[in-house]
Amino acid sequence: MSSVRVVSPLVVRPATEQDVAEITRIYSHYVLHSCATFEMEAPGMAEMARRRSKVLELGLPYLAAEEDGRVVGYAYANAYRPRAAYRFTVEDSIYINPADVGRGCGQALLAALIQRCEQGSWRQMVAVIGDSGNAASVGLHQRFGFHQVGKLSSVGFKLGRWVDTVLMQRALGADPVHT
User: Fold this and answer.
1) If you compute the radius of gyration of the chain from its CA atoms, what whole number of angstroms results?
2) What is the pLDDT of residues 99-146, one digit of tens each?
3) Global pTM value
4) Residue 61 φ/ψ, nearest 5 degrees
5) CA 125 to CA 115: how far, in whole Å?
6) CA 140 to CA 44: how far, in whole Å?
7) Quick check: 35 and 59 in contact, CB under 8 A?
């Protein structure tokens, strides 16, 4: 008789302080092994906790995707730029546990992130995607209505090569103009 592993459904929820260790582990992988982030040294748990707190202080969502009792990814929206004129624009960030890539975690997180941002005063969401060759991230954002609005060529140098960033954008809510 063979055993059947039952996997809990994916749950997207606000990330908690208890999630920071796993969030730090996931992010560290991307810092050390990819160009998805241009950060060169992986931040520790205290720094990741500080970053999460800063996002929450701005009233923005910081989410975790949990499956079978473990965090498989996280996403958050942050201020696009610090100047006041940008206050209605946010930038999204999504990171998935490498073993769980391709299973729909990114889709679930981005859908929830967009929904939560649409409930606030934000009118535009920007994605700054590290590495123009990151087809998975570009494709994910396209599926959610993001359009490529630019590419910055060779703006970063990481893992021994020059790296582009792709700029994508989508409106939040029915009326993209805040009055």
Assistant:
1) 17
2) 999 899 999 999 999 999 999 999 999 999 999 989 999 999 999 999
3) 0.91
4) -80, 145
5) 11
6) 28
7) no
